[in-house]
Design goal:
single chain, about 0% strand, cell membrane, transport, transmembrane helix, about 90 residues, 3 helices
């Protein structure tokens, strides 16, 4: 009973997170300003980390947690790089 409920909740969370990622993708394409697009890209990175963690819970594989951590680091670095570019027009001084 409890494992069925957990599986249903995890599956629902995966579907919801994937739908929100698609909506953020729309904001990346149609965003009126560059900062809106940067925030949407950061949201996509966060959602992909959440999808990796939820998939790790549903499959029981610990490797997906490591993948999620690596994606979080890459997402953080890319957000910093893009914000540097938006603010100063150059990434490396």
């Amino acid at each position: 009973m409890a494992s069925e409920l957990l599986g249903t909740v995890v599956y629902g969370a995966l579907v919801l997170t994937a739908a929100l990622t698609l909506l953020a993708g729309y904001r990346v394409i149609r965003g009126p300003t560059v900062p809106d697009r940067v925030v949407a890209l950061d949201t996509i990175a966060t959602n992909v980390v959440a999808i990796a963690a939820l998939f790790a819970v549903s499959t029981g594989e610990g490797l997906f947690v490591t993948v999620g951590l690596v994606l979080a680091i890459i997402g953080f670095i890319s957000t910093i790089a893009v914000s540097q570019y938006v603010i100063e027009g150059d990434i490396i001084e």
